[in-house]
Amino acid sequence: MNTLRPGDAMLTDWREAAARFEREVGKAVVGQERAIRLLTIAIFARGHVMLEGDVGVGKTTLLRAVARGLGGAYERVEGTVDMMPTDLIYHTYLGEDGRPRVEPGPVLRQAEDLSVFFFNEINRARPQVHALLLRIMAERSVSAFNREYRFPHLQVFADRNRVEREETFELPAAARDRFLMEIGMEAPRDAEVRRTLVFDPRFHDTDRLTEEVASGVLDHDRVGSIASAIQHAIRAEPAIEAYVVGLWEALARPGPAGIRLSGIDMDRLVQGGASPRGVAFLVRAARVRAWLEGRDWLVPEDIRAVFPAVMAHRVFLEPVYEMRRTEIVPELIRAVFETVPAP
Amino acid sequence: MPAPPSAALLVAVVASLAAPLPAVAQVRGVELRTPRAFGYFQGDLVQVQAEIRTDPGFSLQRPSLPKPGPVAYWLDLKEVRAEEGRADDGSTVIRLHLTYQDFYVALDARTLEVPGFPVTVESAGSNGSTTAVAQVPAWKIGVSPLREVQPERRDDPAEYLRPDGRAPRLDPQPALASAGIFLGLAVLALLLLAYDRAWWIFGRRRGRPFALALKALRRARRRSEGEALYRDALLALHRGLDETDGRRVLADDLPDFLARHPVFRPQESGLATFFAASRLAFFGRDTAGASQRLPLPEVEGLLRRLGAVERSA
Predict the structure, then answer these.
(1) Which sign, positive or negative, has the C-alpha torsion B67, B73, B78, B80?
(2) Signal peptide location in the record (chain B) (predicted)?
(3) Among candidates B99, B102, B113, which has minimal Cα distance to B141?
């Protein structure tokens, strides 16, 4: 296969760094190669990531390991029902002299150096908090103390578990669309890995476990410029452009594309979504995947590898089918890839 | 054998007019229309009509009608039907249609009396209801024996029995013919269904995607040349693979494809080269490099080999 041109030595070096980063994270989180690969792609695509999965599959551990490997300042908040947007921005307390004080809260504390903002249990926070997060994610800036704070390197990682529905707030479509990927995490299937996870005491103390990850494998200051270099270096041929547009069309209008799923009215299945921003994100992530695979041109497999994580949460189904979303959307995506011809 | 009531008319008017009591005058008359008065055999139905005329405002009290059932040991009442109407002078006309069946085994011709019965009519006025009784009179029918009392002497008692009636011989030809036609139609429909559902011999019916791909390549040869022809050739092979697998096969899917279709395993190296060349040609902007790696004749050769495997499978 083609490798990158010699002139792109920097990209080659960075690819090695990315591989090292994946290995380091893999030390702390075993059996989640797919999630780690997708997170690496998200980092180099400068996109925000939502992790979704059952309780205790290692979402938080994975994000902590990634934050540690990425280096830079790191903040973490836990979503609660009574959390307000100001709780993220301001920290209010009574000083020793009894006078009230207002100081920068979690978002502002590290100022511009903030590289990873980790929002735990995001669906427990109220819509007001989601709105603030929307602005932080979309514009990487926030207004406070009568000035504007910018976070050029900021990446938002969020997680939510899908077990509880009480006292939770579904993220608005606009906020979900801001996330580059929504990665579903499952407990590892492999029996050997499962045994290790349960019996090896190394995996019982997550603090010590994340400390094993070498800190700052990637230089978080420069990830932004590398990300933009990747986007310029990876070529997309007309054939791949036609392929992506074909996939997009088939996903948005599965009926006319000839996709049939049993028991579903295909003409009324998809209500909307699959936004142009989403498809742009898709190509962005696919380019990073091509780069990680050592190519400077896109192939359909790149698109397919990132498609479910990038596109699944952007498809909005008719309310009748929304309850069965977790089974319908993967079926639909599989059918789309089985229908649209690649070359 | 029942005779229509009009065949013979026996009018029996019970002249209740003779009674001077005003209460009786509420029933103006009862008229019985019977068919012929004689010639009844055992088992015959006898249909009788009774017409009762009453003063205006009276109507039949239906529970007072006789119930169908045995009337005498030789007579059954089979059916009672009543209809009410209005005559020109305003009086109510009640018509009873009675069907009797005679079971009398007569040895000689004789006359029997069919008993009469009372029927109640009522008029619901503002100060209570008034009822009156109309008496349907008894009447007579003449019954006759079916056979002579002392038949001719026979030696064999079985000879007293009449021979069985002869049933007409039916022609089975039209039924056989239509059965044949419908059987043929059913088989035809079953064949169509089996074809549609790919049952039985049709189950093995399978398109030959690689043979079609080879045909498509030959057509492309007439249409285009150079790089375009090369790309068309690759596309033809791609479509053949897609069709064989029932899904789109990408380069990374080759191991899965071979696992699903082990017959093509001997062609693995050829297919791997093909996918690499196709990637280069379509996504690597290097059709020339691709055609060096896998020249056009080899694409055709690969297609032919795949087609041969497909035929033998």
Answers:
(1) negative
(2) 1-25
(3) B113
Contacts of A297 in chain B (CB under 8 A): 283-285
B69 or A76: which carries more pLDDT confidence?
B69
- Number of DSSP helices (H) and strands (E) in chain A, helices first: 15, 11
Q: What is the mean pLDDT of residues B193-197?
A: 83
End-to-end CA gap in chain B: 81
ipTM given for this complex: 0.73
A32/B28 Cα distance (integer angstroms): 107
Chain A closest-CA separation from residue B202 CA (Å) = 24
CA distance A44 to A285: 8
Q: Measured between CB atoms, which of A2, A339, A343 is closest to B278?
A: A343
Measuring CA to CA, how many Å separate A304 from each of A248, A307, A308, B34, B182? 12, 5, 8, 97, 55
Q: How far apart are CA B304 and CA B310, in angstroms?
A: 10
Average pLDDT by stretches of 10, chain A with 343 residues:
55 83 82 85 87 80 82 82 86 88 83 81 86 84 84 83 76 81 83 81 77 76 81 81 86 79 77 80 88 83 86 83 81 84 77
Residue of B nearest to A299 (CA): B283
Is there a contact between B278 and A239 if contact means CB atoms under 8 Å apart? no
Contact (CB<8Å) A342/B276: no
Contact B140, B116 (CB under 8 A): no
Q: Which pair of tokens denotes residue A65?
A: 């390991």
Tell me which of B247, B248, B285 to substitute to probe the interface with A (most A C-beta atoms closer than 10 Å): B248
Here the tokens at position B214 are 């080879």
Q: What angle do CA A153, A155, A160 make, to 5 degrees?
A: 165
Ramachandran bin of A111, using left for φ above 0, alpha for ψ from -120 to 50, beta for the remaining angles: left
Task: List the beta bridge partners of residue A318.
Answer: none
A73 membership: H or E segment, kind and range = strand A73-78
Q: What percent of chain B has pLDDT over 70?
A: 90
- Cβ of A240 and B283 within 8 Å? yes
- The answer to whether residue B23 scores a pLDDT higher than 60 is no
Q: Check: CB of residue B282 under 8 Å from CB of residue B237.
A: no
Chosen from A5, A237, A307 to mutate, greatest number of chain B CBs within 10 A: A237
B interface residues, A as partner, C-beta within 8 Å: 234-235, 238-239, 242, 246-248, 250-252, 276, 278-286
Residue B166, phi then psi, degrees to nearest 5: -90, 125
Return the H-helix or E-strand segment holding A132: helix A127-139
State whether B250 and A304 contact (CB < 8 Å).
yes
- Asked if the Cβ–Cβ distance from B248 to A235 is below 8 Å, we say no
> Cβ contacts (< 8 Å) between A339 and chain B: which residues?
248
Residue B130 burial by Cβ neighbours in a 10 Å radius (0-12, 13-18, 19+): middle
Structure tokens belonging to residue A331: 């079926």
Region for A244 from its dihedrals, namely left if φ exceeds 0, alpha if ψ lies in -120 to 50, beta otherwise: alpha
Contact criterion met (CB < 8 Å) for B282 and A237? yes
